[in-house]
Amino acid sequence: MAAAAERRVGLEALTAEIVACRRCPRLVEWRERVAREKVARFRSETYWGRPVPGFGDPDARILFVGLAPAAHGGNRTGRVFTGDASGDFLFAAMHAVGLANQPVSRALDDGLRLRGAYVAAAVRCAPPANKPLPSERDTCAPFLARELALLSAVRVLVALGAYGWGAALRAVGDVAGESVVPRPRPKFGHGAEAQVGPYTLIGTYHPSQQNTFTGKLTQPMLERVLSRARELAPAPAIVGR
Q1: Is 228 within a domain?
Q2: How far is it, in rounded angstroms, from Cα 121 to Cα 52?
């Protein structure tokens, strides 16, 4: 119980630090401009317009790593993969395998709860053209490493796309030591698996529309990867009452 409480407190403190971050001038300018100018379909909404922290179950055994918040998704709602088509696809699959209590995520107060899972991104601000600069990626990298360190029950990392795969490898190296990262570094692929120190890393194509609309990634494909993650990171057995 003490460890669980410490995880929660640590994650809350890290969340506050992430939300206040202004270290990357280009990203700060872009996210705030998008929040001011908006798009027609969300004209009446107040955008978040700040860095987007990870969220989910503090006792998670599976950590999902995406690229960055969408300009009119997480940058609008304040929660990664919330309010955009990628999130619709991801949470439908998570719900199907028992990692989420509902298949859609529209807003911070929509009742979504994750079970045994935590979702984060390599970069916490929406980047122009969805392409962070290497310097921005590196500035943001410590946040993911610190989340992974705090989420001490995590045993599996699910990389949502090649960018998430690289970020996950770097985070594990920061937390467990670079010596645990295999050389040459494991290559990303849909369904690829790699043992990296105490963690198993699994890859899936990113649930972006460019993959889902073309059929490169289907719901059954994503659900199989998530089922495999659950298989490798089962919930601990409850002993007694």
Answers
A1: yes
A2: 8
Distance of CA 176 to CAs 35, 145, 170, 197, 210, Å? Answer: 37, 10, 10, 7, 34
From residue 222, give the alpha-carbon distance in Å to each of 5, 28, 96, 136, 164: 32, 32, 10, 29, 15
CA distances from residue 226 to 150, 170, 196 in whole angstroms, order as listed = 22, 22, 18
**What are the percentages of helix, strand and coil residues in the chain, rounded to 5?**
45, 10, 45
Whether 45 maps to a domain, the answer reads yes
Answer whether residue 239 is part of any domain: no
Strands 156-160 and 55-56: unpaired
Distance from C-alpha of 164 to C-alpha of 216, rounded to nearest angstrom = 17
pLDDT in tens, 146-203: 999 999 999 999 999 999 999 999 999 999 999 999 999 999 999 999 999 999 999 9
Contact (CB, 8 A) for 55 and 149: no
CATH of the domain at 141: 3.40.470.10
Q: How is residue 138 written in tokens?
A: 């590196």
Structural domain of 59: 2-232
What pTM was estimated for this model as a whole? 0.95
237 domain residue, yes or no: no
